[in-house]
Amino acid sequence: MDIKVLGSRSPHGAATLALIDEVARAMGVPVKVQKADDFNTLISHGVMSMPGVVIDGRLVHAGGVPSRGRVEDWLDRNG
What we know:
alpha+beta, Glutaredoxin, 3 helices, globular
């Protein structure tokens, strides 16, 4: 599973990145998490509010830190 955290330099982006990593390890789901902060990547995914989360090329979240339950749902559906 390929996950990108868009806007990962912000405090919310860093928290989102850490949460995804923590939940993936706890669930035993192998993930490849990438950071993306360049403007063109954000715009190409339609992210207007950071952080954004893209899983396997599909935007699943934008703005604020997602809940742990929401991250678990993403990884359960895609893992």
